[in-house]
Amino acid sequence: MYKLSGVTKRYSRGKDTVDALRGVDLVIEDGDQLVIQGPTGGGKSTLLQMLGGLDRPTEGSVELDGTDLARLSEARLTKVRSQNIGIIFQSFNLIPTLTAQENVETALVPLGVRASERRTRAAEALASVGLGDRLHHLPGELSGGQQQRVAIARALVKRPKVLLADEPTGALDEGTRDEILALLDGLWKEYGLTFVMVTHDSAIARRATRVATIKKGRVTVTERTPAA
Ligand SMILES: Nc1ncnc2c1ncn2[C@@H]1O[C@H](COP(=O)(O)OP(=O)(O)OP(=O)(O)O)[C@@H](O)[C@H]1O
Ligand SMILES: [Mg+2]
């Protein structure tokens, strides 16, 4: 469970300061799905970075299961991230010179998993996203949707409890976008993930049961009972 209290993020550049987040309080229960939306520059990616331990707040606390990520040493934070948090982005961020399988394996290196087990688990993760027949392809030999599937496999191969996605379908065409969203939805349910997704897609926001809207660094949460 995430518990954010009074999270403020101020970016300073010389005399210029930007308050990207202003006193955000937010709870995300285990196994929940939270959709984050709002205008460009509102602070969505900044909030996701706080949740992922990729950056620290200027003020406030970001507790994951009672541990404040804002106060962890860099080494402990890296450990929490590599064990518990899978992250996917709009640009798939794959390493172009590594095959699909090798890209997925990279997530297991910091966990000290043996090479043979890394290979097996990477192949299984790729099969679970429908890419069992593309293990040895390089990113440049895959379609956009397939590259995002590799990135999803890389995020999930470590069996994290949290999956964070920052506009994961932003670079994809409409048909592929629906495929990826259906895949993510299925994986969320199958693995009982805590799933937080930033999206500009209002159709997704309409379907979601819990939506956080961020404007000028402030968050409003809307809850809805899903139609049966
Ligand atoms: N590293 C940084 N240094 C300075 N300012 C930053 C930095 N990162 C973000 N900002 C500023 O913080 C604010 C929030 O940015 P953020 O990237 O979180 O917005 P966003 O909601 O994700 O927007 P988008 O929909 O365009 O992705 C913006 O005004 C942005 O200019
Ligand atoms: Mg953003």
CATH class of the domain at 2-91 and 160-223: Alpha Beta
C-alpha end-to-end distance: 26 Å
The main pleated sheet reads as:
6 strands, mixed
Radius of gyration from the alpha-carbon trace, in angstroms: 18 Å
**CATH fold type of the domain at 2-91 and 160-223:** Rossmann fold
Helix content: 25-40%
Number of strands: 10
SSE topology string: EEEHEEHEHHHEHEHEE
Number of helices: 7
**Share of β-strand residues:** 25-35%
Q: Which strands sit side by side, in order, in the main sheet?
A: 6-7-8-3-9-10
CATH architecture of the domain at 2-91 and 160-223: 3-Layer(aba) Sandwich
Which consecutive residue ranges, at least 5 long each, have pLDDT under 50?
A: none
* Structural class by SSE content: alpha/beta
Mean pLDDT across all residues, rounded?
Answer: 94
- The gross shape turns out to be globular
Ions, cofactors, ligands: which are bound? adenosine-5'-triphosphate, magnesium ion
Name the CATH superfamily assignment of the domain at 2-91 and 160-223: P-loop containing nucleotide triphosphate hydrolases
In short:
By secondary structure, the chain is of the alpha/beta class. It has helices spanning 44-51, 74-84, 100-105, 115-128, 144-156, 174-191, 202-207, and strands spanning 2-13, 16-28, 33-37, 59-64, 67-68, 85-89, 162-166, 194-198, 210-215, 218-223.
